[in-house]
């Protein structure tokens, strides 16, 4: 297990913002949608819930590049094979898990087999020993023979992914001990060579069974057509890549903000076949003109095309009737992202607004000669000042590239006074980078402001280069870009103009890069300079602490060397002293820091650390919850401390913390919770300040909440909600190690409400108030639990930062303290009931994901029906049993419905029959009836069949329609041939039968019943409505059967 940890640390450290990522079918689909960072991504199939998997993305987007999916299982803990067992997986949806295996180009899992250990001096039993059968998720079997020695074996393809373990012999002490690695599945970026196209292609979509057509593209060129949509009516719609960050229809319509499309990464396009819209990478929809359904899509781009539509991939892109290729290559050069040249990158972006602005696809290289460093010195100013760099008559076009180790900083502030007044500011604080822009006609007019911001999960103080631009287009619309993301400045965005600086400039313009004149300094800077630009408002953003390069103003690159010389000459009393906390160049650590850790100055000074024991620059290992050892970052080496009473009471559970004058910047705890539910609120760890004042405490609740509470007002107040606490539900069966970090953030202003901590519980972020007290003591609380179930602490560390408001001295430095190692040193040898302190899963701590990875599960009793189809398919005994039970249940439900329906119908019939007869007899007249025998032409009166009926007349003449005859004067009506053909002699008991009469004939037959004698039976005609004429026919002309 230990040798695999770097793999997970690599995945963890390279994770970036995946918070707003939409679920897709696989890691490959995420990569083709522009996500090139390793991390945890959501995947989802049709009619399945969303699950999370670990994805490793390739750096370069070549078709032969490989996207990797990593899934872990409970078999990583190992199991002694005593009987048939089933392995649970971290991805608990087996529909998705099978799809990952089936779609992958190859899968691999390593099995470690350890034969039963012998007692000392005992001879090894002769082989063969009992064998073991391994059943995979896809139904393949692998047999471990009894004569196979201990060692490792590789499972590939469909055999990888062990689900069941079945030994030859049950409860044999000779059965092996089996451990499995994680499941690693690889998938080529291009699954089929025929789907990768360098040229043009036309797709006939008329035979598609899907609602959308999908393809991927990759380009580093802008201002070119992306695709042409051919509609069934003959119309065409051309979609263009415009100005790197936009999609347009080329008809003057407002373009759609997307992001850096021409960044050399793969992007996925989806075209609605009803002709309504297209979308990129699942983002906002670009509405198309209403020209009707799509019959054909033409694609030709300066780059590469990959057909990813399900219909195309199902046929390996060889359907010549659907796909027509243009063999002429459209891209014959290397992509900028793949360039290994040592000189500057030739790719540019936003060429309509900037001259040779480096593209985000260019790899950042240090030592280019135009970098400079800024610090927050308590006695010196820190910025680059540019005069006459802004004008109301020219479109705004500003840019810089920066990196910082601080969580807040001012990047740009500019102000101008000419025909109109205005100011612009770009800054970041926490995870939000904001641009604000304000204009007014003069000092007496109303200031109109616009703004927008772009979030980044891990914030901007990560010591990585970030390119920022703000510009205006030809329509006066303002935009902010941060690397590949873009937003438009609007009046409705949430931003605070109180955070913007303001000067006393009366004429001209000025642009400050990385800082402002925001502190009182005497005897260094000229009075006229101070009178124009000094603003000592502590509610504003602090100066940048970091490096800056590639500064652009008015769309052109700034010569920073000349700009600093001009600044020294116009602002300093003694220009030769160059008294600014700024210097050319950008220092780096002497060795490569681990991915995710910052290279930082050990003290707040630009000068070398003369007389100090520490180097000028070093890696901040606390970023990865690690410790510095001889210039490198190492993991915790001390043994875990159990929270069981028998462990801590052997010595003590209270430990002092060496007090420092530096700023406590971070606390981290890695712990495994008790593996059983608790009945009451159970404190685990207390952090005290100055005696018994609770600074923080960690506790668990009976509901399963892991809570971090800050400075409770009373010792018995256990709050679980923000802003005084952070909480997350954790299942007691989850035996993974959980990470809690408490990180101090830079406040805006001096009010106590502006001071806060960021608390992360397994990557879930909370903001809680900062009590501003010193940590002095840590106390472990004892848990009464069965042996080995109390939980444990595997790491506890502190990180201190230098105080940038204090003078530089050897004690005001950054430092990491290994508290757990100090505790174990003080405690000595202590009995521990925890052989291992939980399962290590660093991806559980990934920040910014919508759903974290689930637990690894357990190796449980054999349950083949739970996850796989039985042998024999639907004819297997279990399927037959399920079918019989289901059939019986459905039959009972159907029978119940029939009984209820019949009961309700009979009740309704009985209720309404008598009332209907009474109304018909009351409202309808008796009429004569004509009867014709079925046995011959003779006509007999109906009294022959109903001797007790009174005085019913018979007439042998059939009824005629109005077109041939008129109604008789006495309103005598005749029944149609359909009832004339009725032979009453066929009925022995006529009172038991009902004569059915056509509804539209307006004729009803009142039959005899139990409560009505036969003598009262009548054939009656319902009264016609007033709309009918007197001569309207009683029966229909078509003479349909009654």
Helix content: 10-25%
Shape: globular
If you average the pLDDT, what whole number results? 79
Quaternary arrangement of the chains shown? single chain
SS field, number of helical segments: 11
Fraction of residues in β-strands: 25-35%
**Span from first to last CA?**
86 Å
Q: What does the radius of gyration come to?
A: 41 Å
* Biggest sheet statistics: 8 strands, antiparallel
Taking pLDDT < 50 over at least 5 consecutive residues as the criterion, the unreliable ranges are: 1-19, 831-835, 866-876, 926-1003, 1022-1042
The strand count comes to 59
Category by helix and strand content: mainly beta
Biased composition (Low complexity): 961-977
Domain Laminin G: 373-586
Signal peptide: 1-17
Region (Disordered): 956-982, 1021-1042
């Amino acid at each position: 297990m230990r040798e695999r940890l770097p793999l997970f640390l690599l995945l963890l450290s390279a994770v970036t913002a995946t918070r707003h990522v939409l679920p897709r079918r696989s890691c490959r689909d995420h990569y083709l949608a522009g996500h090139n960072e390793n991390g945890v991504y959501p995947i989802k199939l049709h009619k399945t819930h969303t699950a999370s998997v670990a994805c490793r993305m390739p750096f370069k987007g070549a078709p032969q590049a490989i996207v990797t999916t990593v899934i872990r299982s409970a078999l990583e803990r190992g199991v002694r094979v005593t009987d048939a067992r089933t392995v649970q997986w971290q991805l608990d949806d087996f529909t998705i898990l099978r799809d990952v295996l089936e779609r992958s180009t190859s899968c691999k899992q390593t099995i470690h087999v350890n034969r039963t250990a012998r007692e000392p001096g005992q001879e090894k039993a002769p082989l063969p020993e009992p064998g073991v059968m391994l059943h995979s998720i896809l139904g393949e079997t692998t047999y471990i023979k009894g004569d196979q020695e201990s060692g490792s074996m590789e499972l590939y393809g469909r055999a990888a992914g062990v689900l069941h373990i079945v030994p030859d012999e049950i409860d044999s002490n000779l059965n092996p001990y089996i451990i499995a690695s994680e499941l690693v599945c690889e998938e080529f970026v291009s699954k089929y060579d025929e789907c990768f196209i360098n040229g043009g292609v036309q797709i006939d979509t008329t035979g598609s069974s899907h609602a959308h057509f999908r393809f991927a593209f990759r380009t580093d060129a802008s201002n070119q057509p992306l695709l042409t949509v051919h509609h069934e009516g003959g119309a065409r719609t051309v979609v263009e890549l415009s100005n790197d960050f936009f999609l347009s229809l080329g008809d003057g319509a407002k373009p759609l903000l997307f992001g850096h499309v021409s960044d050399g990464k793969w992007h996925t396009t989806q075209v609605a076949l009803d002709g309504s819209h297209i979308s990129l990478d699942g983002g906002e929809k670009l509405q198309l003109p209403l020209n009707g359904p799509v019959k054909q899509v033409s694609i030709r781009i300066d780059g590469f095309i990959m057909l990813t539509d399900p219909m195309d991939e199902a046929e390996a892109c060889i359907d010549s009737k659907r796909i027509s290729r243009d063999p002429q290559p459209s891209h014959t050069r290397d992509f900028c992202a793949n360039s290994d040249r040592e000189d500057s990158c030739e790719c540019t972006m936003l060429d309509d607004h900037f001259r040779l602005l480096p593209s985000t696809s260019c790899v950042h290289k240090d030592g280019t000669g135009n970098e400079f460093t800024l610090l927050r010195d308590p006695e010196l100013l820190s910025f680059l000042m540019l005069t006459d760099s802004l004008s109301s008559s020219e479109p705004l076009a500003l840019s810089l590239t920066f990196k910082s180790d601080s969580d807040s900083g001012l990047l740009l502030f500019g102000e101008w006074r000419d025909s109109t007044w205005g100011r612009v500011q770009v800054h970041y604080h926490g995870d939000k980078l904001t641009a604000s822009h304000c204009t007014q006609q003069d000092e007496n007019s109303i200031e109109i402001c616009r703004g927008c911001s772009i979030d980044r999960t891990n914030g901007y103080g990560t010591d990585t280069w970030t390119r920022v631009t703000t510009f205006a287009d030809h329509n006066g619309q303002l935009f902010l870009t941060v690397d590949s993301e873009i937003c438009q400045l609007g009046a409705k965005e949430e931003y605070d103009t109180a955070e913007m600086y303001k000067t006393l400039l009366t004429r001209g313009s000025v642009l400050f890069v990385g800082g402002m004149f925001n502190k009182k300094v005497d005897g260094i800077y000229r009075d006229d300079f101070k009178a124009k630009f000094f603003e000592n408002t502590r509610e504003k953003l602090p100066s940048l602490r970091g490096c800056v390069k590639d500064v652009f103003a008015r769309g052109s690159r700034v010569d920073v060397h000349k700009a600093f010389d001009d600044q020294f000459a116009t602002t300093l009393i003694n220009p030769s002293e160059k008294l600014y906390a700024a210097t050319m160049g950008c220092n780096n650590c002497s060795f490569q820091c681990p991915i995710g850790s910052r290279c930082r100055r050990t003290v707040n000074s630009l000068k070398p650390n003369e007389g100090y024991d520490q180097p000028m620059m070093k890696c901040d290992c606390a970023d990865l919850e690690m410790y510095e050892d001889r210039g490198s970052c190492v993991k915790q080496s001390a043994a875990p401390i159990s929270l069981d009473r028998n462990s801590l009471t052997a010595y003590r559970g209270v430990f002092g913390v060496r007090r420092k004058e530096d700023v406590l910047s971070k606390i981290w705890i890695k712990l495994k919770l008790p593996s059983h539910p608790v009945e009451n609120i159970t404190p685990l760890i207390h952090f005290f300040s100055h005696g018994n004042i609770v600074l923080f405490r960690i506790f668990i609740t009976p509901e399963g909440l892991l809570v971090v509470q800050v400075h409770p007002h009373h010792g018995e107040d256990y709050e679980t909600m923000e802003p005084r606490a952070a909480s997350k539900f954790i299942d007691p069966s989850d035996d993974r190690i959980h990470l809690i970090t408490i990180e101090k953030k830079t406040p805006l202003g001096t009010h106590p409400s502006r001071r806060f901590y960021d608390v992360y519980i397994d990557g879930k972020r909370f903001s809680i108030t900062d009590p501003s007290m010193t940590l002095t003591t840590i106390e472990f609380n004892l848990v009464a639990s069965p042996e080995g179930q109390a939980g444990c602490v595997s790491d506890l560390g502190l990180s201190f930062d230098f105080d940038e408001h204090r003078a530089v001295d050897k004690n005001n430095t950054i430092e990491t303290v290994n508290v757990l190692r100090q505790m174990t040193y003080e405690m000595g040898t202590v009995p521990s009931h925890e052989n291992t302190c939980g399962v290590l899963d660093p991806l559980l701590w990934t920040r910014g994901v919508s759903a974290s990875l689930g637990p690894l599960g357990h190796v449980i009793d054999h349950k083949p029906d739970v996850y796989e189809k039985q042998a024999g398919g639907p004819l297997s005994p279990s399927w037959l049993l399920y079918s019989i039970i289901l059939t019986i249940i459905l039959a009972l439900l159907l029978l119940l419905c029939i009984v209820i329906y019949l009961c309700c119908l009979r009740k309704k019939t009985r209720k309404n029959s008598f009332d209907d007869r009474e109304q018909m007899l009351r409202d309808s007249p008796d009429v004569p009836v004509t009867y014709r025998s079925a046995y011959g032409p003779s006509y007999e009166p109906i009294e022959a069949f109903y001797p007790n009926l009174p005085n019913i007349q018979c007439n042998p003449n059939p009824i005629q329609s109005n077109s041939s005859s008129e109604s008789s004067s006495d309103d005598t009506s005749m029944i149609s041939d359909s009832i004339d053909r009725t032979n009453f002699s066929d009925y022995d008991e006529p009172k038991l039968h009902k004569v059915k009469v056509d509804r539209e004939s307006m004729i009803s037959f009142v039959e005899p019943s139990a409560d009505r004698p036969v003598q009262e039976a009548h054939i009656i005609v319902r009264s016609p409505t007033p709309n009918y004429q007197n001569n309207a026919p009683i029966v229909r002309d078509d003479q349909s059967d009654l």
